[in-house]
Specification:
This protein is an alpha/beta fold. Among the domains are: 172 residues, FAD/NAD(P)-binding domain, CATH 3.50.50.60; 88 residues, Guanine Nucleotide Dissociation Inhibitor, domain 1 (Orthogonal Bundle). Strands 8-7-17-18-19-16-20 form a seven-stranded mixed β-sheet, with helices on both faces. It has a five-stranded parallel β-sheet with strand order 10-2-1-14-21, covered by helices on one side. Strand 11 and strand 12 form a beta hairpin. Helix 1 runs parallel beside helix 14 and helix 3 packs across helix 5. The radius of gyration is 22 Å and the shape is globular. Bound molecules: flavin-adenine dinucleotide (FAD). The site of flavin-adenine dinucleotide has 40 residues, from helix 1, strand 16 and helix 14.
């Protein structure tokens, strides 16, 4: 029987799984469809030596698996935002943070958080979307607007789609104290893992078919010389299920796994980086500004970077992101101008539409009513020798995060080590 494990996808889940297996003395091969590794962790350089993130960016204070890897590779984390001082809402033309809300707005928001927390405490997953739940409860109009804004700016979807049970997990996020960024960009962490793995990582190598046989797994990899069959003891599939549903997989999947692979929804995000020649806001930290419109969140990734130039990251999530197309940069500049009408001219920009990325087909997964409890126990279960990792298979509070990808890779590696130990 072959002794190696194949890992499909060199995002943080695949690289973490490979790293853990190699450290445990295992033989692994990682196949990545794209020319670059990292997947949704994607740092880009702009002018003046500054950088921005087109994908993952913030590290929360409970993201301990990522922090441990950063320490192992000598990578520092920079401060990003302190909550709630640095979280702002631009509502009805006024920029407010937790300190400057009116007493009535504060009470309305607290009331929303309490109701969401009780859903979590009681582990309820009502068969309702966020919109349906808001309509069925006495939630004040201000808090409703904030809740809808969070659906797009955090979950990359819309209030008429996301289940209230899954949305309630944001309550934990709202209680968070601070978050950070990877100094030099998240791609540094990706590159450190890939460097450790060396020639075990194969780029430009999309996997087209996964087939479980009696005592092994066979994978068809597309190479410059055509399809190549690689046989392994086991395989870890880390690719998003929005992509996996277009890949042939012959394994003893449960009916629910098949259903989840074919239907798990992924939100859309367009992220646009705008670089300005200088700072044009008065606060020391731009913070994270949530606003209603085509872009729902704007923040400054250059907070801890050198140089007079400033970058603003503009995030469009959910349905509005799908309509931006080639207008993304212009619309991002317009969104900044609603906050700061005197903003100077942009000196450089980059924009990325994650729904249009053939190897992601969306930003990250979310759940519609009823899906969370139905799918959840099946997402991280192996199907014979086929194991699953990726943010979508992580514990629910880490889903949609780098932390979730890393933890899922570590868990899949452990599942394989357990199988070998049997
Ligand atoms: C816009 C945006 C903002 C985000 N912001 C944050 C944030 O602030 N903080 C945070 O922690 N997280 C954030 N995330 C989420 C984070 O990026 C992801 O949870 C994490 O990077 C997912 O890692 P992964 O390994 O599960 O998947 P991926 O990174 O998608 O890796 C999967 C890999 O598989 C490859 N692949 C696909 N199909 C095949 C195939 N057939 N054969 C071979 N390879 C294949 C892909 O090319 C990709 O490299 C953000 C994501 C997006 C899109």
């Amino acid at each position: 029987m072959p002794s190696q494990t194949i890992i499909i996808g060199a995002g943080l889940a695949g690289l973490s799984a490979a790293y853990e297996l190699v450290r445990a003395g295992m033989d692994v091969q990682v196949f990545e469809a794209q020319e670059r590794v990292g997947g949704r962790a994607y740092t880009v350089q702009l002018s003046a030596g500054q950088y921005g993130e087109l994908g993952a960016e913030f590290v929360d204070d409970n993201h301990t698996a990522l922090m441990t890897y950063a320490t192992q590779f000598g990578i520092q984390l920079d401060p990003a935002c302190h909550f709630s001082d640095d979280l702002y809402w631009f509502i009805d033309g006024t920029l407010r943070n937790g300190m400057s809300l009116t007493a009535e707005q504060s009470t309305d928001l607290d009331n929303l958080y309490v109701k969401l927390q009780s859903l979590l405490d009681e582990q309820q997953d009502p068969q309702q979307t966020l919109d349906e739940w808001l309509d069925a409860h006495p939630i004040a109009p201000f808090a409703r607007r904030i809740a809808r804004l969070l659906a797009s700016s955090l979950f990359a979807t819309d209030a008429d789609l996301i289940s209230i049970g899954f949305f309630a997990y944001f309550t934990g996020i709202s209680n968070r104290a601070y978050n950070m960024r990877v100094q030099g960009g998240v791609s540094r962490l990706v590159d450190a893992l890939a460097k450790y793995l060396g020639e075990r990582v194969h780029t430009n190598a999309p996997v087209r078919r996964i087939q479980q046989t009696d005592n092994s797994v066979s994978v068809s990899v597309e190479t410059a010389n055509g399809l190549v069959e690689v046989v392994a003891h086991s395989v870890i599939v880390t690719i998003p299920w929005s992509v996996l549903r277009h890949t042939l997989i012959e394994a003893p999947l449960t009916d629910i796994q098949r259903e989840a692979i074919s239907s798990l929804p992924y939100g859309g995000v367009v992220k646009t980086l705008l670089q300005y020649p200088h700072c044009f806001w008065s606060k020391s930290n731009f913070g994270i500004v949530l606003l209603e419109g085509e872009y729902q969140a704007i923040w400054e990734p250059t907070f801890a970077q050198m140089g007079a130039e400033k970058i603003l990251s503009c995030f469009s999530g959910g349905n509005s992101s799908l309509k931006l197309s080639d207008r993304a940069t212009d619309r991002a500049m317009a969104a900044v101008n609603t906050l700061y009408p005197d903003a100077p001219r942009v000196i450089s920009s980059r924009s990325y539409d994650w729904s249009a990325d053939e190897w992601t087909r969306g930003a990250y997964c979310y759940f519609r009513p009823g899906e969370l409890h139905r799918f959840d126990p099946h997402l991280m279960q192996p199907a014979g020798r086929v194991f699953f990792a990726g943010e979508h298979t992580a514990p629910v509070e880490y889903r949609g995060y780098m932390e979730g990808a890393i933890r899922s890779g570590q868990r899949a590696a452990q599942q394989i080590l357990n199988l070998l130990g049997e």
